[in-house]
Amino acid sequence: MPSVRFRLNGVETDVDADPDLSLLSALRGPLRLTGPHFGCGANECGACNVMVGDRAVAACDTPLWSVAGKDITTIEGLGSADAPHPLQRAFIAEQALQCGYCVSGILISAAALLKQNPKPTGEDVKAALDRNLCRCGSHNRMVRAVLRAADEMEAP
Ligand code: FES
Ligand code: FES
C-alpha cells in the first residue's frame, strides 16, 4: 500500500492507504480523528471541513494524494478541552451549538476566515459560513460567536 505523508495538526504523519481515498475517510479511518464529520459526502454541507494551509476544504471531496506535503488542521488541532481556541470559547459563551454535528466544520471555516481576515464584519462571517449547513438553525448565534472570538483575538 502506498504511503502519503503530510503534517497533521503539526505532526509529520504517514498514512498507508489508497491515495484515491478521500481525506475524510483517511482521517476518520486509519488516523482515528473523528472530529471531521460525514454529512453529505458531496462537498455540500461543510460538516467534514478541515484546513489545508489556511483554507477550509471539504475533506470528503479531497483525495488523499492531493494533500501530500501539506499542513492539515482538524478540529482536534484547533484547541482542546484544557486549552480551547478562542472560537471554541466564544461558541460556548454564545451558546452557539445545539446538536453540534455541524460545529467542527463551522469552527474550521471560521478559523480559516480569521487567519485570512482577523477583523471580519458580520457580512464577512456570513459569507465565510455560507456553505456550512446547520440543521439546528444556530447560524445567527454562530456569527455572533465568530465576531466575539475575533474581538478577543484582537485584544492586546
Ligand atoms: S460531508 Fe463533506 S461537505 Fe458534506
Ligand atoms: S448545531 Fe445541530 S446541525 Fe448545527
If you had to describe this structure to a student in words, what would you say it looks like?
- The chain has six helices and five strands; from the N terminus they run ββαβββααααα.
- The structure holds FE2/S2 (inorganic) cluster (2 copies).
Brief summary:
With 156 residues, this protein is α+β, with helices and mostly antiparallel strands. It has helices at 23-28, 75-78, 86-93, 103-116, 122-128, 139-154; strands spanning 3-8, 11-16, 49-52, 55-58, 71-73. Strand 3 (49-52) and strand 4 (55-58) form a beta hairpin.
Report the sheet with the most strands, covering strand number, pairing sense and barrel closure: 5 strands, mixed
> What is the H/E order?
EEHEEEHHHHH
What distance separates the N and C termini? 49 Å
Helical fraction:
25-40%
Placed side by side, the strands forming the largest sheet appear as 2-1-5-3-4
* Class of secondary structure makeup: alpha+beta
Bound molecules: FE2/S2 (inorganic) cluster
Query: What is the number of E strands?
Result: 5
Report Rg.
Answer: 15 Å
Q: Unreliable stretches, pLDDT < 50, 5 or more residues?
A: none
Specify the oligomeric state: single chain
Number of helices: 6
The backbone outline, from C-alpha atoms, is: globular
Proportion of residues in β-strands: 5-15%
Mean pLDDT: 96
